[in-house]
Specification:
With 595 residues, the protein is mainly β. The chain has helices at 224-234, 328-331, 432-441, 451-465, 478-484, 489-502, 573-581, and strands at 17-20, 28-30, 50-53, 108-119, 122-136, 139-154, 157-169, 175-185, 188-197, 200-205, 211-216, 221-222, 241-248, 253-267, 276-285, 296-300, 307-314, 319-326, 346-348, 361-367, 384-387, 395-401, 507-516, 524-535, 538-542, 555-561, 584-591.
C-alpha cells in the first residue's frame, strides 16, 4: 500500500492556464475559468484567440496488457467477496485472495489486493496489485503488477492518471526483470524494461527514441511481490525500524524505504464502521537531495500486519490521500465528483502586479511550510537573487529581475557542453520533421543572422505554429510534438529546445512558476515550463507560449534540465519539492523599467 511516485509524477504539471493572443501584444497569461470535456474525451478547441498551457497527464484510459512471459495467457482473476448492499464507500477490508485454481500455463494467482483512493472524502480511483506464480523447466517465478488508476479534475475537466509497474521475481525475492509504463503524449508512453545482471540493472527504453542505460543495483532490492508481503512477514515490533531497497521506475533508480512501528491505537477505517484496534506504522522514502516525499501512515491488522488503510499528506493532490483495502467490486465502482486541482496546484498572491512581464524587477517574501527551507527551493541565477534574514532559512526575499538580451559574459566558456546540443530520449531532434521546422523557423532571416536572432525566431515560430487543442500530454518528446504541433507548455518547451539544437544552438528547458491573473480573484503563480538558449556565455530565457521575445520578472525559476541521457522524471524532483513545501508568496515591491 505504498504510494511513492506512482501517484505523484503525473501531478506535477496539472495547472490549467491560458494565453490571450491580443492583437497589440504577443500574449498575457490568464487563468482559463472552465473546462469543456469529461470522461476522458478530448476537449474542444478553445475559442479563437486562446492558447491553453495545460501541463497534465494523459486522458488515456486502459493501456494494453503486457507481460514478461509473453507466450502465456493471462491467468483468470479470482472473484472478490460480495460487498453488503448498503456499502456506498470503500469500507470493507478484504484479506488477500486465495490462490486460484489454474493450470501452470496460465499462472496461478497467489496474491491480489484492491485499494480505493480518496481525497477529502471523494473517491478518485484505485490501486491494484496481483501476483501470479509460473513454473518453467522446474523453476518457479513470480510475476507481479501494480496498477494505478486515478481521476482528477482541472477546471471541471476530468483527466485520468494511469501508471503500471511490474517485476519478475524468484520465490526468494530475487528480482530478475522490471517494467514501468506511464503515458507521455498522444500515442506515446514512457516504457522502461530492465534486466538484472549482477550489480547492474540494464534498462531498455522502448520505442523509436529508446536506448539503454545501466542503473546501480545493490544487493537485496525487492520487487512488487516481495514488498507486498514484507511487513506482514517481518512483523516489526513497536519501536522497531527496518528499511528495504526498491526500484522506482519513474526515477529509474533504486531508493531506500524506511519503516517504523509506533504501536496500537483505535481508529475508524471508513465511514459507518465501528472503531477497531490497528497497528500504526510510518513508511517513507529516504530523501534524494532536497526532495522528500511525504511519509505515509499505515494502519495494519495487529495480528496479521496486513495493511488496512494508509494516509498521506499530498499537497500536489489537494490534501490527505486516503487508501483503503477493499474488494474489486467496490474499487471499480464509478467515480463521482472529484477534487479540482487548480486551487491546490497554484500559489495565490496577496496582490496584483500590473504589467509584470514588462517590469524591471519584482521582490517576493517567500515562506516555506514544508521541511525544506525556502532558501533551498529557488536557485540564484543571472535574474534571481535570494536574501535570507531568517537563520532557519524558512523565510527569504526573492528578487526576480528582467534580463537584457544583449549582455554577454566574456569569461564564460564558448560551449556549455554536449548535453545541451546532442539528441536525447525527450529532446529527440535528429529527424526530418524537427529539421524541417527548424528551417522554417529561420527562413526569413539573413544568412549572417546571429545566434540570438535565430533563437528569437524559434520562439516566435513555435508560438505561431503550435496548437493548444490536445491536452492529454504529460511529457511528450520533441519528435512527438513536432508531428502533432499540439500540447501545452511542456510541449512548447520541448519543441523549442529541439529546434534550437537542430540549428546548432545549445538549449535546455527551465521549470518554475509563471504569473497568471485570475478573473474575479487574486492572481497566482502557476507551475510552468519554458526554455533557455546559450548565447555569448549566458543562458537567455525565452517562452514560446507567450512569444514576448524573452521573458521579464513574471517567471520564477525552480530548476533547469538538459534531459541528456535522461529516461525518467528525475529532473522534475525540484518542482515536486516546491509543491510539497507549499510556499507562501507575498509581493513586497516591484519596479518599473527605466524609459
Amino acid at each position: 500500500m505504498s504510494l511513492r511516485l506512482i501517484a505523484l509524477t503525473g501531478c506535477v504539471w496539472s495547472v490549467a492556464i491560458a494565453t490571450l493572443l491580443a492583437a497589440d501584444r504577443p500574449g498575457t497569461i490568464i487563468i482559463r475559468p472552465g473546462g469543456s470535456s469529461a470522461g476522458g474525451v478530448a476537449p474542444a478547441p478553445d475559442r479563437p484567440g486562446f492558447i491553453v498551457i495545460r501541463p497534465q497527464t494523459p486522458g488515456q484510459t486502459s493501456p494494453p496488457r503486457e507481460t514478461f512471459l509473453q507466450e502465456q495467457p493471462a491467468a483468470p482473476t479470482p472473484q472478490p467477496a460480495t460487498a453488503p448492499a448498503t456499502t456506498s464507500q470503500p469500507v470493507q477490508t478484504a484479506p488477500a485472495a486465495q490462490p486460484a485454481q489454474a493450470t501452470p500455463e496460465e499462472g496461478r494467482v497467489v496474491l491480489e489486493t484492491w485499494d480505493t483512493a480518496s481525497i477529502r472524502g471523494q473517491k478518485i480511483g484505485y490501486f491494484h496489485v496481483i501476483v501470479r506464480e509460473y513454473e518453467r523447466d522446474g523453476k518457479k517465478y513470480l510475476y507481479a503488477t501494480k496498477t494505478q488508476r486515478l481521476t482528477i479534475a482541472r477546471f471541471g475537466e476530468r483527466v485520468q492518471l494511469w501508471a503500471e509497474d511490474a517485476t519478475l521475481e524468484l520465490p526468494d525475492g530475487t528480482v530478475l526483470t522490471t517494467r514501468m509504463r506511464q503515458g507521455l503524449g498522444r500515442d506515446q508512453k514512457l516504457a522502461l524494461t530492465g534486466e538484472v545482471h549482477g550489480d547492474k540493472l540494464r534498462v531498455k527504453i522502448e520505442g523509436a527514441a529508446g536506448g539503454e542505460q545501466e542503473v546501480p543495483w545493490p544487493t537485496g532490492v525487492v520487487g512488487i511481490a516481495r514488498e507486498a508481503t514484507l511487513i506482514p512477514d517481518r512483523k516489526p515490533k513497536m519501536g522497531e525500524k527496518l528499511d528495504y531497497l526498491y526500484y522506482e521506475g519513474r526515477l529509474n533508480r533504486v531508493v531506500k524505504i524506511l519503516v517504523t512501528t509506533h504501536g496500537e491505537e483505535e481508529i475508524t477505517l471508513a465511514p459507518h464502521e465501528k472503531p477497531r484496534k490497528v497497528l500504526r506504522i510510518e513508511q517513507g522514502m529516504e530523501p534524494i537531495g532536497n526532495f522528500r516525499l511525504p511519509p505515509s501512515t499505515l494502519y495494519c491488522d495487529p495480528i496479521s500486519y496486513q495493511p488496512l488503510k494508509s494516509e498521506t499528506d499530498v499537497p500536489m493532490l489537494g490534501g490527505r490521500l486516503t487508501v483503503v483495502r477493499t474488494t474489486k467490486e467496490i474499487a471499480l465502482r464509478p467515480i463521482g465528483d472529484v477534487p479540482d486541482m487548480f486551487n491546490v496546484q497554484s500559489i495565490r498572491l496577496d496582490q496584483e502586479v500590473p504589467r509584470i512581464h514588462n517590469l524591471a524587477a519584482v521582490v517576493y517574501k517567500i515562506t516555506s511550510n514544508g521541511e525544506v527551507p525556502a532558501n533551498k527551493l529557488f536557485p540564484t541565477t543571472d535574474r534571481q537573487s535570494v536574501k535570507s534574514s531568517d537563520p532557519s532559512g524558512k523565510s527569504i526575499e526573492l528578487t526576480i529581475a528582467a534580463m537584457p538580451l544583449t549582455a554577454a559574459d566574456p569569461n564564460a566558456p564558448a560551449d556549455p557542453g554536449k548535453e545541451f546540443r546532442e539528441p536525447s530520449f525527450f529532446i529527440d531532434w535528429d529527424n526530418d520533421t524537427v529539421k524541417r521546422h527548424a528551417a522554417a523557423a529561420v527562413a526569413g532571416l539573413p544568412r549572417d543572422a546571429d545566434t540570438l536572432r535565430k533563437a528569437l525566431a524559434v520562439e516566435s515560430w513555435v508560438h505561431r505554429n503550435m496548437r493548444a487543442i490536445e491536452f492529454s500530454q504529460a511529457m511528450a518528446t520533441c519528435s512527438n510534438v513536432a508531428r502533432t504541433l499540439s500540447g501545452d507548455c511542456t510541449e512548447y518547451a520541448m519543441l523549442s529546445v529541439g529546434i534550437c539544437r537542430a540549428l546548432g544552438i545549445p538549449a535546455r528547458t527551465a521549470l518554475g512558476l509563471v504569473y497568471a491573473p485570475v478573473p474575479g480573484s487574486k492572481p497566482c503563480l502557476a507551475y510552468h515550463m519554458w526554455f533557455e538558449v546559450y548565447v555569448d556565455g549566458r543562458w537567455i530565457p525565452m517562452d514560446a507560449t507567450l512569444g514576448y521575445g524573452g521573458i521579464g520578472p513574471g517567471h520564477v525559476k525552480i530548476t533547469d534540465a538538459s534531459w541528456h541521457e535522461e529516461r525518467s522524471f528525475a529532473p522534475l524532483l525540484p518542482v515536486l519539492t516546491v509543491l510539497t513545501a507549499s510556499p507562501k508568496f507575498e509581493v513586497i515591491r516591484f519596479a518599473e523599467r527605466n524609459r
